[in-house]
């Protein structure tokens, strides 16, 4: 049953709620979608060094936050920031794959722009995460370390 319409070459085309005719395969259920998402995380962890580093550093940050008994709001901010960095890493990996699929091993200025901008998005989110850790974790960690030392 047509629910919306799209414009192509000036013509209004009706389309169904799931207009995925070009897809090779469509996840049959919510459980199927979750399984494919997990496969994406697993692929990124196995193949992307930066994704592994960010996962480990993020886990340490969450662990430190819990150990330092940070308030729930601060732990939430740290969690959201780590989630943002990991999500950016996954999008960067997806963009790299689509670019490589499109241009193969040929040089293309637009491929360069796509990859450089995707990498920049990861970098900016990582800097934001550093800033959050510097504001919320470092001062309290310094107090604990200094009190232990002296
Ligand atoms: N097909 C291409 N055409 C033009 N420049 C490219 C192309 N492929 C890669 N590059 C350039 O090489 C850089 C590194 O490419 P690569 O595929 O390793 O991306 P990356 O973001 O550095 O990878 P990773 O996130 O895994 O470290 C890109 O940022 C881009 O500047």
Automatic annotation (TrEMBL):
PROSITE patterns linked to this entry: DAGK_PROKAR (PS01069)
TM spans (from-to): 22-39, 51-70, 76-99, 120-149
Cofactor(s) listed in the protein's UniProt record: Mg(2+)
Active site: 89
Keyword tags: ATP-binding, Cell membrane, Kinase, Lipid biosynthesis, Lipid metabolism, Magnesium, Membrane, Metal-binding, Nucleotide-binding, Phospholipid biosynthesis, Phospholipid metabolism, Transferase, Transmembrane, Transmembrane helix
Topology with respect to the bilayer: Multi-pass membrane protein
Predominant cellular place of this UniProt entry's protein: membrane
InterPro entries linked to this entry: DAGK, DAGK_sf, UDPK
Record has Lipid metabolism as a keyword: yes
Chain residues that bind substrate: 89
Free-text cofactor note: Mn(2+), Zn(2+), Cd(2+) and Co(2+) support activity to lesser extents.
Residues binding ATP, per UniProt: 36, 96, 115-116
Pfam family, one: DAGK_prokar
Gene Ontology biological process terms in this record: phospholipid biosynthetic process
Cellular component, GO annotation: plasma membrane
Keyword match Ribonucleoprotein: no
Binding-site residues, a divalent metal cation: 96
Subcellular location(s) of the protein: Cell membrane
Record GO terms (molecular function): ATP binding; kinase activity; metal ion binding
PANTHER family: DIACYLGLYCEROL KINASE
Similarity comment: Belongs to the bacterial diacylglycerol kinase family.
Protein name, entry field: Diacylglycerol kinase family protein
Organism this protein belongs to: Romeriopsis navalis LEGE 11480
